[in-house]
């Protein structure tokens, strides 16, 4: 499936701020089942872009706007070709639990086996597991258990925007019985890690299909879970829609939780209040032209008010974590 993605992030300040420093996790990954055709970032005010790979191998862009400004616009354009993953087996043998407990797996996946940030073990989570009889699933094979947990989260928690925020803990969604993709992913990851199944948080986009039963917001970014099963390696599960991550999913970054891979994060100097607006569009592309697989930085053009960088290199809802910086 060939997809075009436009991701707009706008920050408006009540009065001019003196400087903004930002980091962005917006470039789709390139890997098995996903080919990055092109990636562009437009910034207004103009800024010089830099990039690096974070500890989890995600592409991160960062920039500094060193002059006073009342608005900051960030527009990411991506073209991605995705493929459907290979079908999963109906089940795995029960010995998969022993393979998960091996020193090799536990050492290799330690970051994704322990609580971190929004992924926490709470009494409310324990009550959820007990209420829905999920602990009994550990007598089944790990793949069957993982899929059953995804279904339980989907069936028992309603999707509702505006109730939780990017800073909400899992107990909020569990207590209210509703939340968004970020909440559902953190809940599932916490259960998986308690059971000794490595699990990581994936941020990205979804080409929404209401006819297929998708309930996530088509105008927002998306999040889901990848679990590590030794016989299958990393496998994507979307508990928000109770489906496997497939050709309609576009992965951008993976980490221990949301805080590792927010779409944007930054600080600014100034006392002004800020407002955030986000719009995401994911649509089928009619055609695309592959670009060279290297970072192409344009020559400076001081007469323009915008700066663009293009990238084709091999490498829910948005919330910028802003901190006012004292001069």
Structure, briefly:
This protein is an alpha+beta fold and 327 residues long. The chain has six helices and 18 strands. The chain has two domains: 2-82 and 261-325, Immunoglobulin-like (Sandwich); 96-246, C8orf32 fold.
Tell me about this structure.
The protein is an alpha+beta fold. It folds into two domains: 2-82 and 261-325, Immunoglobulin-like; 96-246, Roll (C8orf32 fold), CATH 3.10.620.30. Helices cover 17% and strands 36% of the residues. The protein has six helices and 18 strands. It starts with a strand and ends with a strand.
Number of discrete helical segments: 6
- Give the name of the CATH architecture of the largest domain: Roll
Helical proportion, percent range = 10-25%
Topology, number of strands: 18
Largest sheet: 6 strands, antiparallel
Order of helices and strands: EEEEEEHHHHEHEHEEEEEEEEEE
Shape: globular
- The domain tally reads 2
CATH class of the largest domain: Alpha Beta
Radius of gyration: 20 Å
């Amino acid at each position: 499936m060939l997809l075009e993605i436009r991701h707009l992030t706008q920050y408006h300040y009540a009065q001019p701020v003196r400087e903004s420093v930002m980091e962005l996790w917006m470039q789709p990954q390139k890997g098995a089942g996903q080919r990055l055709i092109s990636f562009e970032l437009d910034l207004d005010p103009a800024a010089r872009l830099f990039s690096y790979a974070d500890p989890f191998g995600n592409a991160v862009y960062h920039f500094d706007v060193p002059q006073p400004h009342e608005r900051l616009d960030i527009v990411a354009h991506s073209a991605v070709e995705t493929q459907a993953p290979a079908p999963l087996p109906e089940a795995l043998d029960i010995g998969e639990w022993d393979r998960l407990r091996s020193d090799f797996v536990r050492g290799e996946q330690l970051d994704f086996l322990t609580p971190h940030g929004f992924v926490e073990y709470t009494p409310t989570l324990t009550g959820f597991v007990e209420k829905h009889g999920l602990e009994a699933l550990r007598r089944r094979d790990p793949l069957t258990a993982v899929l059953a947990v995804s279904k339980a989260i989907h069936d028992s928690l309603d999707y509702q925007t505006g109730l939780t925020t990017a800073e909400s803990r899992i107990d909020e969604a569990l207590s209210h019985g509703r939340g968004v993709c970020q909440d559902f992913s953190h809940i599932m990851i916490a259960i998986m890690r308690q059971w000794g199944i490595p699990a990581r948080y994936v941020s990205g986009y979804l080409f929404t299909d209401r006819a297929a039963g998708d309930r996530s917001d088509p105008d927002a970014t998306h999040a889901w879970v990848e679990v590590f099963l030794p016989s299958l390696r990393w496998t994507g599960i979307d508990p928000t829609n109770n489906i496997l991550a497939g050709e309609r999913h576009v992965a951008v970054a993976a980490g221990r939780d949301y805080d590792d891979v927010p779409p944007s994060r930054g600080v600014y100097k100034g006392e002004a209040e800020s407002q955030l607006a986000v719009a995401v569009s994911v649509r089928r592309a009619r055609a695309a032209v592959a670009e060279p697989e290297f970072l192409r930085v344009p020559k400076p053009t001081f007469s323009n008010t915008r700066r663009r960088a293009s990238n084709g290199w091999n490498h829910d809802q948005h919330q910028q974590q802003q901190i006012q910086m004292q001069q």
